[in-house]
Amino acid sequence: MKRTLAAFLTPLLLIGCNLDEFPEFNPRPIIDYQQEMRDFVRGISRYAKGIEADFIIVPQGGIEIVSTNGRVSGSADTAYINAIDGLEQESVFYGQGGIDQPTPAAERNRLRTFLDLAKDNGDVTILVTDFAFTPSKVDDSYDLNAEAGYISFAADHEALDNIPEYPPQPHNENNRNILRLDQAENFLNLINPRSFSSRQALVDAVSDTNYDLVIIDFFFNGEAYTEEQIEQLQQKRDGGRRLLLAYVSIGQAEDDRFYWQNSWFSNPPVWLGEVVSGTSGNYIVDYWEEGWQDIIFGNDDSYLFRVIDAGFDGAYLDYVDAFEFFEE
To answer: Which of 177, 239, 232, 182 is nearest to 56 (CA)?
Structure first.
């Protein structure tokens, strides 16, 4: 006759056994992965704005968490929305099925529902990176985003490693000083520096454009930009001021970043997980754990402090959608 779980546990309890020795009967607590990410981003925002009140926070992807239940049927999570200045989403109109391919209507509508929920319930600017290279499709992407009330960038490389040749000038080019995110009318998403021979080559190429907003990695092949290079990046070709956001991965760890310790390959910290499938140096992290969050913000050695101290205008937070891995 099969013994019941209660029959098995009772004698253990009576003799004072520690249930931690029996993990099959001591499951991990249930974690609300979406809420943990909301709390993480809000913590980043509080910390950054506590140092620099006008510092800009723009999460990339994971837009489902603007809804209280993570679904299109949910109401706006105003605590999260009020903590951010913008949202960035890729492939709203072009690129989900490949570069130059229109995103299917059903997915367009789903993405727009979340983006509009944030835009309609807070002071949130929507940035969209579409992927297209045919001039007619690039033009269509800009037109569709403008109609939706989004600021957009049409990337002709999926790696986001270049300045597109078309259009020859940024969409909605202007000579105004851009001091707030909601003043921007265009942006350049250049988070991968691999096409440039040096830091200064990238700086010179960007400074020869009139984009209102530029997103770049905080490092160039492991090297931080100098104070003079940051200031140069913040100037448009016509002399106007633009905004500069630094790429920061908060949902994955990368083994080529300043915080990485070689000992982690054989003896990883408790929050460090497996290699992300299809990559050679990105790792899953338990992003709600204190050890990982301490790397990202909250102290003078953290990623966010370095970004703020360097003079960037804001942070572009990537892999916000990391909660999807754990939910699946």
So the answer is: 182
Coil, helix or strand for 271? coil
Beta-carbon contacts of 248 under 8 Å, excluding residues fewer than 6 positions away, are 218, 296, 303, 304, 307, 315, 316, 317, 318
Per-residue pLDDT tens digits for 296-315: 999 999 999 999 999 999 99
The C-alpha atoms of residue 289 and residue 119 are separated, in whole angstroms, by 30
> Cα-Cα-Cα-Cα dihedral of 144, 147, 148, 153, to 10°?
50
* The token pair that represents 118 in the structure block: 């944030």
- Asked if 309 contacts 302 with a C-beta cutoff of 8 angstroms, the reply is no
Residue 154 CA to residue 163 CA, distance in Å, equals: 10
Which of 106, 170, 97 lies closest to 131 in space, CA to CA? 97
Tell me the pairing of strands 252-254 and 282-285.
Answer: antiparallel
Q: Are 221 and 205 in contact (CB under 8 A)?
A: no
Q: What is the dihedral of CA 95, 36, 112, 247, to 10 degrees?
A: -50
40-76, pLDDT tens digit by residue? 999 999 999 999 999 999 999 999 999 999 999 999 9
Residue type, 26: N
* Separation of alpha carbons 209 and 239, rounded Å: 10
Amino acid at 32: D
Number of separate helices (H) and strands (E) present in the chain: 10, 13
Angstrom distance (rounded) from CA 212 to CA 243? 6
- Which pTM value belongs to this model? 0.91
- Secondary structure letter of residue 74 according to DSSP: S
Q: Look at residues 59, 237, 58 and name the one whose alpha carbon lies nearest to residue 163.
A: 237
Tens digit of pLDDT for each residue in 101-154? 999 999 999 999 999 999 999 999 999 999 999 999 999 999 999 999 999 999
Please write down the HEC assignment for all residues of 138-175.
HHHHHHHHHHHCCEEEEECCCCCCCCCCCCCCCCCCCC
List the beta strands (DSSP E) in 137-276.
151-155, 188-190, 213-217, 219-220, 223-224, 243-249, 252-254, 272-275
Per the DSSP assignment, residues forming a β-bridge with 214 are 188, 244
Q: Could you tell me the two tokens for 141?
A: 């992407």
